[in-house]
Amino acid sequence: MKVQAFAALLFLLIAVNEAVVFEKCELARRLKNAGMSGYYGYSLGDWICMAYHESRFNTAAVGPPNSDGSRDYGIFQINSRWWCSNGQGRTANGCHTSCNNFLTNDISDDIECAKRVVRDPNRMNAWVAWRNNCKGRNLSHWTSGCQL
Ligand SMILES: *[C@@H]1O[C@H](CO)[C@@H](O)[C@H](O)[C@H]1NC(C)=O
Ligand SMILES: [Ca+2]
Question: Which of 48, 49, 61, 108 is paired with 32 by a 20 to 30 Å CA distance?
């Protein structure tokens, strides 16, 4: 019984922190509720297109090392050189957090950090995958079929 209770607790702890692959419309709803529609002039389509091309909506995504040795974390692939600390190498840690916090199924902190990133002069050009795949395109299909 004790062992079972422990196993149940362990499972709960794992489940709470479990990574998740978001479905497009669920992500759209979360982003809208967090005030991302029109944030700094960017549409929900911009954010969803960016997340898709950066992480395929996978909150557990960790990118390969960048040329400066940093890595990118989570659904928005937030960079360890500038925005979070992974305990390796220099970081400005602009979002004042551990990069591991961007790998959980709770994306509220990822969203807050993405807002901080886009307030920088580069805006969404900070995300190379957005620049290459989303910028200046018709993004209406990223929110089509979603009840928002
Ligand atoms: C974007 O694409 C949608 C669906 O294909 C279309 O209905 C809409 O007119 C397009 N918008 C622009 C600005 O081209
Ligand atoms: Ca998180």
Answer: 61
